Amino acid sequence: MSENISFVDEQLTEEQISYGRADREQRATDWGTDEDDGVMPDVVVWPESTDDVAAVVSAANDHGVPITPYAAGTSLEGNAVPVRGGITLDISRMDEVLETRPEDLQVDVQPGILGDDLNKAIASHGLVLPSLPSSGAISTIGGMIANDASGMKTVKYGEVADWVLELEVVLPTGEVTTLGSKASKTSAGYNLMDLIVGSEGTLGIVTRATIQLAGRPEQIRGGRAIFDNIDDAASAVTDAVQSGVDVAKIELIDRFSAEVSNDFLDTDLPNAPMVFVEFHANHGIAREVDFCRAVFNDHSVESFEVSDTDDGMRDLWEARRELAEAFEPYDRNLSPLTPGDITVPISKYPDIINYAKQLAEEYDLPVATFGHAGDGNVHYFVMVDPDDPESVKVGETVSKRLVERTIELGGTSTGEHGIGTGKQEYLVEEHDEAAIGAMRSVKDALDPNGILNPGKIFSQD
Ligand SMILES: Cc1cc2nc3c(=O)[nH]c(=O)nc-3n(C[C@H](O)[C@H](O)[C@H](O)COP(=O)(O)OP(=O)(O)OC[C@H]3O[C@@H](n4cnc5c(N)ncnc54)[C@H](O)[C@@H]3O)c2cc1C
Fold first, then answer.
1. Average pLDDT for 248-273
2. Is residue 265 part of a domain?
3. Residue 75 C-alpha to ligand 1 middle, in angstroms?
4. 211 pLDDT exceeds 80?
5. How far apart, in whole angstroms, are the C-alpha atoms of residue 112 and residue 114?
6. Rounded Cα gap, residues 160 and 115, in angstroms
7. Which end of the chain is more exposed for a tag (fewer CB within 10 A), N or C?
8. 107 with 170, same domain?
9. Which of 6, 22, 108, 100 is closest to 59 using CA atoms?
10. Does residue 438 belong to any structural domain of this protein?
């Protein structure tokens, strides 16, 4: 334990502090960080109020001790893992719904509430936060805001942050401030609230969020289209978005992903590229489905099944839903190198999917592409033999070339997972020096002692 860390004992009660190895070890990893790679914090604290957070942050700032905010730890780029010890501030006990205002379609929550729990809490009002990541059941609203998360429904409803109106934030000095407004729009001054979005806990700690809500759609249909080849499938997605088909979800999985999924589920679907769609509407949904069918027909769709029952939709979506779990058991000599996440402008979507296929052939190793296709978002799993350094090296080359090509196409090295520690080399490829300089200036201005989640987003040098 660092000598100067015991000041937390004066800020919180015994039940809110742990120096125990198991608690510290658990927060030296997130879903994207191996046990061997993470650094343990010296202490884990569980604030239960904004005042608790402010007290710990203020004292840490005075002592120059790093603080890493930690929510559910489902980050994939090391975002929530300390790089040099200090305090892990676990926000999970701050998980209350504070106030629901159905008349304004708004809810105030503490940051540690899970996405699905928020939706359960407001369901009786017929309201929903429509945009959640696929990890909505296991990740928190605060973590989503800090990572600028999005998901399957972003193609229709935008990112999680598009539904955030106001944030209470503890700044790195310990000051508490409120950013944004409960009004549905504001142009009063710099939009500092959006600076907190995607800042990965490096600029402030969110302690309360006011979220805008939507009414639940009356009609939902879900479907699965199967294509003969990836070019047809990818261009069908692009065409559907460009033509304005009103999809609430449109996801693609490539041939290799379909094979992995079929193997895992023991299903007899063809090992062929598939596109999964969902439609939401209050009226006229059948016309939208027909419109989509017409677009898919233009791209030689082999089959397109649609259901309006919960069970039917669940069946049609199974191959996509279970995919993330399917890779690990697929071949015991192969593991996904990295949970890749890139996004291109929609017109470039077929190009990047094709490029991934070319790389797989050139380097003779399996590369799976799937994800939130309607946003131009590609998740990629480069499959390598983790025990073979040469295989890992080749996989890293493939990943690097894929990200670099994405940036050349006008895309981004991370559509939704953030930079953390894993994507820092690409931040400087994606943004020019002036932009990086401005980002660093913002960090220095708000966090002059560099105590909040140091070592994230920017490289340490
Ligand atoms: C199976 C799986 C599926 C996923 N699918 C998606 C997806 O579809 N879309 C997507 O965008 N992501 C996805 N993710 C990534 C991840 O779930 C999201 O980034 C999620 O928003 C992280 O939330 P968390 O509560 O786990 O936060 P954590 O991982 O604990 O923390 C995330 C970051 O936020 C900071 N932080 C946490 N709480 C606060 C706070 N209150 N104030 C300030 N900073 C804070 C942390 O320091 C860290 O930098 C997926 C992950 C998994 C494991």
1. 96
2. yes
3. 4
4. yes
5. 6
6. 10
7. C
8. yes
9. 6
10. no
Examine residue 142 and state whether it is found in any structural domain, yes or no.
yes
CB 234 within 8 A of CB 216: no
Which residues sit with their C-beta closer than 6 Å to ligand 1?
Answer: 30-31, 68-76, 79-80, 91, 111, 133-135, 139-140, 142-144, 146-147, 149-151, 200-201, 205-206, 324, 416-417, 453
Q: What is the dihedral of CA 332, 337, 343, 344, to 10 degrees?
A: -90
Domain containing 341 — which CATH number?
Answer: 3.30.70.2740
Residue among 57, 135, 141, 341 whose CB has most ligand 1 atoms within 8 A, to mutate: 135
What confidence tens digit (pLDDT) does each residue in 51-73 have?
999 999 999 999 999 999 999 99
- Same-domain pairing of 280 and 358: no
CATH code for the domain of 124: 3.30.465.10
Distance CA 241, CA 459 (A): 36
Tens digit of each residue's pLDDT (9 = 90 or more) over 356-414: 999 999 999 999 999 999 999 999 999 999 999 999 999 999 999 999 999 999 999 99
CA of 232 to the centre of ligand 1 (A): 33
Domain end (from 274, 291, 326): 326
Whether residue 112 is found in the same domain as residue 168:
yes
Distance CA 225, CA 20 (A): 51
State whether 66 and 44 are in the same domain.
Answer: yes
How many angstroms separate the alpha carbon of residue 323 from the centre of ligand 1?
Answer: 19
Question: How would residue 32 be classed by pLDDT, with cut points 50, 70 and 90?
Answer: confident
Residue that is last in its domain, among 215, 245, 262: 215
Give the chain's domain count: 4
In a domain, 455, yes or no: no
Residues 322 and 338 in one domain: no
User: How far, in Å, CA of 130 to CA of 216, rounded?
Assistant: 8
Q: Which pLDDT does position 18 carry in this prediction? A: 98
95 within 8 A of 114, measured Cβ to Cβ: yes
333-368 tens-digit pLDDT: 999 998 899 999 999 999 999 999 999 999 999 999
**Burial level of 345, CB count in 10 A (0-12/13-18/19+)?**
middle
Q: Is the same domain home to 136 and 221?
A: no
Residue 77 Cα, ligand 1 centroid: separation in angstroms?
10
Question: What number is the average pLDDT over the span 117-127?
Answer: 97
* DSSP per residue, 203-228: S-EEEEEEEE-EEPPSEEEEEEEE-S
What pTM was computed for the model? 0.96
Both 375 and 353 in a single domain? yes
